[in-house]
Amino acid sequence: MGRWEPNARGRLEKAALELYGERGFEQTTVAEIAKRAGLTERTFFRHFADKREVLFGGSVHLEDLVVRTVIEASDPTAPIDAVAAALEAGGAVLIHERARKRHAVIVTNAELRERELIKLASLASALADALRRRGVADLAAQLTAEAGIAAFKVAFEHWVSDTEEKDLSHLIRESFDELKAVTAGNSHSMSMTPPHRSPEGSPRR
Amino acid sequence: MGRWEPNARGRLEKAALELYGERGFEQTTVAEIAKRAGLTERTFFRHFADKREVLFGGSVHLEDLVVRTVIEASDPTAPIDAVAAALEAGGAVLIHERARKRHAVIVTNAELRERELIKLASLASALADALRRRGVADLAAQLTAEAGIAAFKVAFEHWVSDTEEKDLSHLIRESFDELKAVTAGNSHSMSMTPPHRSPEGSPRR
DNA sequence: GACACGATGTCAGTGGCTGTCATCAGCATA
DNA sequence: TATGCTGATGACAGCCACTGACATCGTGTC
């Protein structure tokens, strides 16, 4: 077979996730990741554009799946529901255990959060494109996509923040329902006397 | 007064925006920015956390304004409308000319887009906090904030992409109206036969 | 056997960013 | 007036992310 151990990329991903988890993202050097994977720093950068990207290998695959699901949605579906269904399909391929580990690393570092956000923005943009191709007007397509991503984001964060694995599909549906309620103005008006608020050490500012 | 020229920070911001515009973000070194501002590289990093942050000095001020507006909203306002009004108030302090120049730089570079996204995410998070403090339930607060930011983002992008200055307030209101329509499923169902689509070289994939 | 190919290694260099110490005007205080 | 403190800046050394250029070496092909 090959002259080298196979699956260099996979080994780098594994080593990186481990090291980021063990000592933190900033405290890990690319050279260390490469060494644990039995490779050199230079090779790391041949597989990944930068030190962060090694955590986001699956995002292309996910985006593909979600976009395809929208494109193949049955005809008389409302755009927002097509987006919800597509994101549910995307969520279905995620593995709770792995997603939790990965997310635990990401939330500890601002640069990694930035990268996550731009991946979601890219997904929103691709979704909007798909909707436009289905004949949805430009502004509506953008807003449906962006609002859909917002709902997904909220659901996903609840999913990975919990040790016990709830059903992500269910969380996504709840999130979209709440989104609809909230934008309809159906949510109760705000009151000046918040219900559950004790004055134990008021937040500064 | 001081021993040095006053307003070092402002001079750095000005020099950076100019240079990023002239030769691009990546082609500009921090040393060059500092030199144009009559300072040293080390001083740049005392004023800004990194090379990107110099473009985002106003974001704290903006976030403050928006959050305060939500907190001070009159009692019987629906949360989504309070958020819309607050973002309109925030948008009102932006200067079209300057926002356009800044945005033109940001869209050319992925790292800068990442930074912009995390600032918006921070704003969403602060908005959600403000809503919770006003007694809005947790999930509703998150979704209202995130969806509101989505609407703002779309409106803002339209505003800065146009040479002629439309009214940002107006664009924001339109965006929120469209958001409400779209999440209500009021938008027309998707059709398999898109209205305006000529087959001139189908996009790959 | 010559040769192209593709994945990796080696090495030198750039630039973002940090820690540390020095410098120096203004200000307070003895 | 001398002394000392403070706060903004400069000077310098160093780490590490990332890149370009070239070398190496199995594998498959002609």
**Structural class estimated from helices and strands of chain A:** mainly alpha
What integer is the average pLDDT of chain A? 92
State the largest interface: A-B, 55 and 55 residues
- According to CATH, the homologous superfamily of the largest domain in chain A is Tetracycline Repressor, domain 2
Reading the helices and strands of chain A in chain order gives HHHHHHHHH
Largest sheet of chain A: none
The domain tally of chain A reads 2
End-to-end C-alpha gap of chain A: 64 Å
Strand content of chain A: under 5%
CATH architecture of the largest domain in chain A: Orthogonal Bundle
Report the count of strand segments of chain A.
0
Radius of gyration of chain A: 20 Å
Helix fraction of chain A, binned, reads 55-70%
Multimeric state = homodimer
CATH topology of the largest domain in chain A: Tetracycline Repressor, domain 2
The coarse silhouette of chain A is globular
At the first level of CATH, the class of the largest domain in chain A is Mainly Alpha
Give the number of helices of chain A: 9
Low-confidence spans of chain A: pLDDT under 50, at least 5 residues? 196-205
Could you explain how this protein is built, in words?
The structure is a homodimer of 205-residue chains. Chain A is mainly alpha-helical and 205 residues long. Chain A has two domains: 44 residues, Orthogonal Bundle (Arc Repressor Mutant, subunit A); 126 residues, Tetracycline Repressor, domain 2 (Orthogonal Bundle). Helices cover 65% and strands 0% of the residues of chain A. In chain A, helix 1 packs across helix 2, helix 2 packs across helix 3 and helix 7 packs across helix 8. The longest helix of chain A has 24 residues. Chain A starts with 7 loop residues before the first helix and ends in a 22-residue tail after the last helix. At the A-B interface, helix 5, helix 7, helix 8 and helix 9 of A face helix 5, helix 7, helix 8 and helix 9 of B. Chain B binds a DNA duplex (30 and 30 nucleotides) through helix 3.
